[in-house]
Amino acid sequence: MSEGATLRDGRRVGGAVLAAIAQVVLMVAVLAAYEYGRHLADGRPSEAFAHARWLWDAERTLRLPDEAELQKAALRWDGWVRVANQYYVRVHFPAITAFMIWVYFWRRRGWPRVRAAIVLSAAAALALHFAYPLAPPRMLPGHGLVDLMNVYGPSAYASDPGEGMTNQFAAMPSLHVGWALLVAWGVIRYGRTRWRYLIAAHPVITLLVVVLTANHYWMDGIVGCSLVVAALWLTSAVQSLRDGEPVRAGTSERRDSVGA
């Protein structure tokens, strides 16, 4: 191999490494800003509980299943509780992180769209945390809900809502559920094995876990998923406008090159 070819190969490798580092820095910054922003949105408990009472009544008007009755029925056998708590605490960030790594290194054509969906949904969720503080079901008195993380462990929150860096009044929306849907969508869209459809269970399990553990209402998960769906639609719409084509429900593979 000539010296020039070696130099070009070295530059390509160096460029690829720098590009990967830049994406890591970007996404770490996005996630850190989201988590810190959630903390800054704290401090309005009276509004959070008023919103919680309104949302509870709205869900009953919409005839959504009663979270308290569902949890009570599930607790007839409590062997699932610690597993559910572990799922809530341990799976969310590792799953979205592993998904981002997989897409970036092995399904690169989908990376710009996935990156955009994460950034846009995180920004929208953070705006909602500021605009609509919401106490989670486990903190809502009068409905018989059990704080399963506090009773059984492990818990992701301090026992006092005013302690720690986690904003406990940021139940709306649930990106646990929204990003679980994003992971399922990405694996099904970009995966190649026939087994990829099993990942559809991930958002379903996540929704049941966050509701049964009384960390979120049904509407938190619905809104979280809606933000992700809207972000994915927006990336498709932007690329369609660039290409001068009409927006369609299904997008071609080349459209997945859209950036954030």
From TrEMBL:
Keyword field: Membrane, Transmembrane, Transmembrane helix
InterPro entries registered for this protein in UniProt: Aur1/Ipt1, IPC_Synthase-Related
Main location: membrane
Subcellular localization: Membrane
Membrane-crossing segments per the record: 12-34, 87-105, 117-135, 169-188, 195-215, 221-238
Keyword Transmembrane helix tagged: yes
Source species, domain of life: Bacteria
Protein name: Phosphatase PAP2 family protein
Domain (Inositolphosphotransferase Aur1/Ipt1): residue spans on this chain: 53-234
